[in-house]
Amino acid sequence: MFPIIKFGWAHVTLLIVVTQSHLIIHNLFEGMIWFLVPISCVICNNIMSYMFGFFFERTPLIKFGWAHVTLLIVVTQSHLIIHNLFEGMIW
């Protein structure tokens, strides 16, 4: 009787895990915007908090060199290019 109970619990566990994974992937593909918007918000928040700390705090956390400025410009330009590419898409 014990192996049958283990077999049943294994199936219940697999059903729960696989169903949740399937629904997450399905939701991701159906509503990609709701996946990208929160991630974009977190990224923008991190960048703005770093810039606020750089410009307004008395003790800087790290040294900010020209490589960082170049990287910031490249990231901003690539964001604008990607935004223009996806602007015409119908969601």
Automatic annotation (TrEMBL):
The Swiss-Prot or TrEMBL record annotates one GO molecular function as:
phosphatidate cytidylyltransferase activity
Q: What is its EC number?
A: 2.7.7.41
Q: Where in the cell is it found?
A: Membrane
GO biological process, any? phospholipid biosynthetic process
Pfam annotation, one family: CTP_transf_1
Transmembrane segments annotated in the record for this chain: 7-25, 31-52, 64-86
What is its membrane topology?
Multi-pass membrane protein
Keywords from the named record: Lipid biosynthesis, Lipid metabolism, Membrane, Nucleotidyltransferase, Phospholipid biosynthesis, Phospholipid metabolism, Transferase, Transmembrane, Transmembrane helix
Q: What is this protein called?
A: phosphatidate cytidylyltransferase
